[in-house]
Amino acid sequence: MVALTASGLMAAAIGSPSLAGETQRTDPAPLRIAMVLFPGMTALDVVGPQVLLAGLAGPQLHLVAGRTGPVASDTGLEIVATADFDTCPRDLDILLVPGGDGTPDQMADVALLAFLRDRAERAAWIGSVCTGSLILGAAGLLTGYRATSHWCVRDAVLPLLGAIPVAERVVFDRNRVTAAGVSAGLDLALALSARLRDPDYARTSQLVAEYAPQPPFAAGTPEAAGPAITQAAMAILKELTERSLAAARARRG
Predict the structure, then answer these.
(1) Distance from the Cα of residue 182 to its chain's centroid
(2) What pLDDT does residue 21 have?
(3) Which of 71, 149, 218, 221 has the fewest CB atoms within 10 Å around its CB?
(4) Residue spans of alpha helices (H) in the chain
(5) pLDDT digits (tens, 9 = 90+) for 138-191
(6) What's the CATH code, domain 2-9+28-251?
(7) Whole-angstrom distance, CA of residue 23 vs CA of residue 29
């Protein structure tokens, strides 16, 4: 669908109707965005924000991993890294980290954590989706910041990494922005778009993507899902939760 391409959304960024019905066109500079990839990431943590932020970046959106080439997600879907830790631009407008089953390993990845610390020194915005906030926390980038994560690790693991857990869909604290589990990455991207361009640009992106969720079930949080469904979900997430806890405790020594 042509309208969902970066060029289509970039057109929306260039000009929007004013209240008087006139269109003022400017040429905003493309934003420099880096999205981290790692083995075992959740693909939607990357792809959701990428679709909505691509129009702000154009060719300046970089998919970054330890080395270039295909990186397998936690369901086997591969996403191609276009830059590595050395070739990724040093100065970024957005640095975004996804989560996924591979999160615990990344919390101990010396090269990745060093890369995040270096780029975060100059990045305008530092963000995460789902358990990506645990990786930011392991890098020391959420100490003293309010943050969220997937509900299975938010309250138990974030405090071990110095963060203040918040049970909200998207949390802004200074130049940190964190999203809750998986699908919340779409909300993060729209909220950032509104701040980096304007609310009408974000609304346009939302409409182009027809992001008007009406899920068939009210089961998107433990409170809504109820005890039985929550218990079933926790069984699926048990390994991720336990390994994330262990990785966070190891960071504390």
Answers:
(1) 8
(2) 46
(3) 218
(4) 6-14, 43-57, 103-106, 110-120, 132-138, 154-157, 184-196, 199-208, 222-225, 227-251
(5) 999 999 999 999 999 999 999 999 999 999 999 999 999 999 999 999 999 999
(6) 3.40.50.880
(7) 18
DSSP string for 202-248? HHHHHHHTT-----SSS-SSHHHH-HHHHHHHHHHHHHHHHHHHHHH
Catalytic residue annotation: 130
- The CA-based angle 226-210-38, given to 5 degrees, is 70
Q: State the residue for tokens 């049970």.
A: 167
Chain-centroid distance, C-alpha 153: 16
Which long-range contacts does 193-198 make (Cβ < 8 Å, 24+ apart)? 193/52, 193/53, 193/56, 196/31, 196/56, 196/93, 196/94, 196/125, 197/13, 197/28, 197/56, 198/16
